Amino acid sequence: MSKLSVIAGKSSEDIAKRLSKKMKANFVKSQVRVFEDGESKITLSGKISKGKSIVVQSIYPPVDTNLIQALSLISKAKETSSEVIAVIPYMGYARQDREFLPGEIITMKVLGKLFKGAGASKIIAVDIHSMMGFRHFTIKTENVSAIPELVRFVKKLSLKDPFVVSPDQGGKERAKEFARELGSEYITLEKKRDRKTGKVQIKTKNLDEVANRDLILVDDMISTGGSIVKATQFLKKQKCKKVYVACTHALLMNNAEEKIRKAGVTKIISTNTIPGKTSIVDISNIIVKAIS
Known about the structure:
The chain is of the alpha/beta class and 292 residues long. The mean pLDDT is 94. A hairpin with a 5-residue loop joins strand 2 (26-34) and strand 3 (40-45). The protein is globular, with a radius of gyration of 20 Å. The strands form 3 sheets. Strands 3-2-1-4-5-6-7 form a 7-stranded mixed beta sheet, with helices on both faces. Strands 9-8-12-13-14-15 form a 6-stranded parallel beta sheet, sandwiched between helices. It has a two-stranded antiparallel sheet with strand order 10-11. Helices cover 30% and strands 28% of the residues. The protein folds into 2 domains: 4-145 and 283-291, Rossmann fold, CATH 3.40.50.2020; 147-272, Rossmann fold. Helix 1 (13-23) packs across helix 8 and helix 4 (147-155) crosses helix 5 (172-182). The protein has 8 helices and 15 strands.
C-alpha cells in the first residue's frame, strides 16, 4: 500500500485525480450528499495511508459549504495519517485579509485557526489573492504561481505583437512577471473602485502603445468581471486588435463570462483551480512540485 494518499474534495476532484496519478498515491474519493437544510454528509471510499495524506479542495461558491467540507476531510485524514497537507487551489476569503473599514472581521485569521484545529500541518494555495492573508496562519503555508503554465498556453496562440495589461495597480507585479515569461512589454491601468458601491472607473488617459497589438489582460481572479469589462471597453477605444484574458481563478459570477465576451474579449483562459468552460490550463504539475 502506498505511504501517500490523495483525498479528493468534491470541488477539486479533477486536480486530485491528476495528483494521485502523478504521485502514485492512493486515490480516496468523496461522496457528498447535501440535505435540504444545506448540511453536507461526506462518505469516503478508498484507503487513507498512515504516512501522509493530501486533501484537495477549492473553496469557491458555495464558499462556506466547500470550506466546511475541506475542514471535515482534513479532520478525517488526521485520524489515520501522521501528516496532512491541505491543497486549497482557490482560497476563498483571501480578500478578507485586513480591516478595511472599522469593525470588519479579518476572516483569514479565523481560517488560520480552523485549518490548524482540523489537523492540517501545511496549506498550499495557488495564486492567493493576497499573501497578507497567510500572515494570520501559524501552520506552514506556500503559495504557488500559475503564471508559467498560463504563459505556456498563451504562447501557443500565435498572437500579433502581444502586449500584457494589468487592469489595476494591484496586479502590477503579476503583469510584470507574465510579460517577462512571455517576452513582451506590459502596462498597468489606473482604476478607482468605490469601497461602498463597488463601482469601477478607469482613470488612465489615452495609450498609443496598444494600437494594432493583441492584448492579454492578466488577473489573479475574475469574480463579476466588472474590472475586465471596463478595461476591455477602454482598450478597444485605443485601437488595439484582439483582447484575451488570462487568469488563475475564473469564478465568473452572474453571467460574467457573457458580459466579458460582449465587451469584446476573444477568449478567456483560466486554470482548473475552479472547474468550468474556460478552465483549460492544468496546474497539477506545479502542485506536485510544491508537495515534493
